[in-house]
Design brief:
Elements: E1 7-11, H1 16-27, E2 31-36, H2 39-51, E3 55-60, H3 66-80, E4 85-88, H4 106-134, E5 137-142, H5 146-149, H6 155-175, E6 180-187, H7 201-210, H8 219-230, E7 241-244
Parallel strand pairs: 1-2, 1-4, 2-3, 4-5, 5-6, 6-7
Helix pairs in contact: 1-8, 3-4, 4-6
Amino acid sequence: MRLANRVAIITGAAQGIGRIYAERFAEEGAAVVVADINEPKATEVASSITSLGGRAIAAAVDVSDVESVNRMVDSAVEAFGTVDILVNNAAIFSTLKMKPFEEISGDEWDKLFAVNAKGTFLCCQAVSPVMRKNQYGRIINISSSVVVTGRPNYAHYIASKGAVWALTHALATEMGTDGITVNTVSPHGIITEIPRETISEEGWRRNLEEQALKRKGDASDLVGILLYLASDESKFMTGQTVALDAGLRFT
């Protein structure tokens, strides 16, 4: 198994794509910390994993709160002894209100940055001591293709995910000396079971027209690259952004 004897914290893991990440990481041998602001759902996911023979615990976390994030990491170390992998999946997106940037309030801007950008920063900061001590770590940040392509009415979201992209570059240079890799996955056009207001049917139609691959993506299209970045197969790769966008743009 690709992640045997590894310990992974996955934020936003109680539902949607995050849940699938947690389940697949467990199938590949990792002990998983199912971290989410929704503790009952996180507990449900952790129980499902353990019922199938995997190792998992639930951790209630508000990624925008430093004390909550530190408790999450402490829980991981207490349960499993260490932290090897961090997937920063928690974000505000499905409930995002699309609007012209002139109509975005300062409070809306701050809320998005508190979770999407600051939350990623705090989680990376919290796992750093244990990863540096072990001289090993895999950090995977989740950004978005709209950072590059742009979209109207997403200014607050695009800016917050652009910050994640830039943070990845900064941390890769700072943490590489201790054997820690930091990479970003930048998805586009992924459907989940979670209803969202961020794209209309017309938006999906436009996406498919612009993509080289003429279909919507799902979690199975993402989880493979996350497993690669979390494993030793990617040990010589850091500071990179992997675009999973059906050929929306070429690099």
